[in-house]
Amino acid sequence: MERALVCVLAVACFLAGSLRPVEGQILSVGARVSYITEVDLVIQQGTLGLGGQAVLGFPVIGLKVQGTLDFYFPDCEGVDCDLRDVGLNGLWTLPIPVVDPYLGAGVAVIRSSVEGEDDTDVGLNLLLGLGFRRLFVETKLQLLQDLDNQLVLTGGVSLPIL
User: Fold this and answer.
1) In whole angstroms, what is the distance from residue 64 CA to residue 78 CA?
2) What pLDDT score was predicted for residue 40?
3) What are the residue ranges in the chain where pLDDT is below 70?
4) Residue 135 and residue 6: Cα distance in Å, rounded?
5) What is the reported pLDDT for 1?
6) Confidence (pLDDT) at 39
7) What domain count does the chain have?
8) pLDDT at position 81, please?
9) Dist CA 38 CA 149 (whole Å)
10) CA 140, 105, 161, 133 torsion-angle sign
11) Range of the domain at 117
12) CATH number at residue 51
């Protein structure tokens, strides 16, 4: 019994130590501004969006989990429309000093509404990003089932919580 308790405590200490990032950041939250190059609603043009994100880091293995929520404001030429994007992505941080480049992939859920008719599309996110201190820029390709594939350019700030 004592041996099992010692093993459990050793594993817990190892996991707790692996969650502490090299730069002291486990969890961060941030604000984002995004631009979609193509929106398949009423018109075919880009649109701006505002959103937030939360990132949970596992620095020992160089991985992060990123959750995002963005609200876009398309110009639908007098038609009532909106667009929301929820994403859950896995990010792999490349070991390069000074900057924090990363690659990622994940799931995108896009919810659009035109004149009260809602549509939901699910697809794949492919990401390439670069962080520097608390700022980041990111390019995301969304491969979607029903809507046209979209290229999303994002920039923002990420503030450490833990």
Assistant:
1) 41
2) 58
3) 1-25, 39-45
4) 42
5) 43
6) 60
7) 1
8) 85
9) 8
10) negative
11) 21-160
12) 2.40.160.20
